[in-house]
Amino acid sequence: MRNAEIDVPDAQALNDTIAAAEQAALRDDAQRDAHLAAWAVAYEAFGTKANRTPCSAAALLKRVRKDGSLPRISPLVDAYNAVSVLYGVPIGGEDLDLYQGSRDF
């Protein structure tokens, strides 16, 4: 995505989702943990060490458990980080204008 400007005049639903994700991070969740375990296996299959380089969902979950909250970046990023923590699925986006080199995508 390029130049995504997100205007969120009433962000109560987003704040509620973030709060739910932060609370969920502190509880055991077998389905979320199974998703994260599968991602760890996938990472190991292509040569990384999952404990050293975890998927973004696992890294966010660990961060919430340590800091007590998700980092706030922008409404769009905050939304997909919350969903990532809630369901144990690494999702995200990139700012293509910050990439250097080939941008043929």
List the main descriptive attributes of the protein structure presented here.
single chain; 105 residues; mainly alpha; 4 helices; 0% strand; flat
Q: Could you explain the architecture of this structure?
A:
By secondary structure, this protein is an all-alpha fold. Helices cover 52% and strands 0% of the residues. It has four helices and no strands. Helix 1 (12-25) runs parallel beside helix 4 (75-87). The longest helix has 16 residues, at 30-45. The radius of gyration is 15 Å and the shape is flat.
Residue share in β-strands: under 5%
Helix content: 40-55%
Using the CA coordinates, give the radius of gyration: 15 Å
Give the strand tally: 0
The 3D shape can be described as flat
Order of helices and strands: HHHH
If you average the pLDDT, what whole number results?
Answer: 85
- Major beta sheet, specifics? none
For the record, give the distance between the C-alpha atoms at the N and C termini, rounded to a whole number: 10 Å
Provide the structure class. Answer: mainly alpha
- The tally of helices reads 4
Low-confidence stretches: none
